[in-house]
Amino acid sequence: MNPSLSLLFVKKMNEICGLDNTNLIYSLLPCIDQKLGSKGRHGGISLNELPMIVDTGIQVFTNKNMNVPKSSAYYMKLEEEKESLFNTLAMEKHLLGLKEFQVGSDKKRAMFATISSMYFNNYITPAQFFLPSTSLFSGHWKFWDKVNYTELMKKAYKKETTDLVTKELSKNETWKTKFSYDDFPEIIKRRLIKENAFEKKLDPDAMIKAIIIKLGELGIPPINYEIVDYSIRHIFTYLAVSKYLRVDREILFLRRFEERLENTIQ
Fold first, then answer.
1. Do the beta carbons of residue 52 and residue 68 sit within 8 Å?
2. How many Cβ atoms are within 10 Å of 81's Cβ, its own excluded?
């Protein structure tokens, strides 16, 4: 989708997870992969590549040494497009409601923005997120069966479509993330009450896990869970997340958001 929509989506995700907006520039990292498509890469960043992609972004955007080879195709392309990406972010300050922006070097926040952007862009373009473990594409296949996909692609980047989705992202009721006790089975409800989870913002680490699970569900057939689980452990090893995370609220949020956005687009 339009880069401005990716930026807006990540900003709203930051809000519901209690993060600042120093990671917004990282939501544009998938754009670089698209520009490398003519050089033999598959369509879309794979989850296996994400640590390298995020490290490259941190090194290029903040000059923090992440030991990324400057000879890599992604590094060279990102360095070439760096100014353009910052200009894109600067031009969207009004849309994002920001007077100024800063760029952080925190790996968790950068990963959160990048993977959220990948998830959002998957509404339009299927991608092989789980390479090399499987070549299956993830995508909103059931939704695309309901619409004319060719027409959807033609309209995806037009102003009227961008304006419609921008309005939906800005005012979507799902962002209020209000959950009731009855939204969950009894055993999950008891745990959430014990943890006072209904009074807390969504957990950003759990949201990363929930997104990977959703990307697995979006495969046709769904991606084998052993592959999904490996991807989660691979990302969390990079982020130094060692505790087991439950994603009941985060998964429910994503399902609600998908239903609302698909209805709007349809």
1. yes
2. 16
